[in-house]
């Protein structure tokens, strides 16, 4: 778990973590507590590298599929 948090940071993970953190700060400031679920989920995607933040959502290139 420690390796997953500390290693492999790329631009996508930074963006997810930053956007999730901004969402959490805004939700807490505006007292709309239901938004903590969404902000926490997006921030944790960046922090723990799961979902699209880990690069799993990338689609293969169409041209490379035609060559095979």
Task: Summarize the structure in short.
This protein has helices spanning 2-6, 11-30, 35-48, 62-67.
Give an overview in words.
The protein is mainly α and 68 residues long. It has one domain. It is built from four helices and no strands. The protein has helices at residues 2-6, 11-30, 35-48, 62-67. α2 runs antiparallel to α3. The longest helix is centred in the first third of the chain and has 20 residues, at 11-30. The protein is elongated, with a radius of gyration of 15 Å.
- Shape descriptor reads elongated
* Rg, Cα atoms, Å: 15 Å
Strand content: under 5%
Quick check: average pLDDT?
80
- The total count of helices amounts to 4
Q: What class would the helix/strand composition place it in?
A: mainly alpha
The SSE string, one letter per element, is: HHHH
- How many domains? The number is 1
Outline the biggest β-sheet: none
Percentage of helical residues?
55-70%
Helix-strand blueprint:
Blueprint: H1 2-6, H2 11-30, H3 35-48, H4 62-67
Helix pairs in contact: 2-3
Keywords, separated by commas or semicolons:
68 residues, mainly alpha
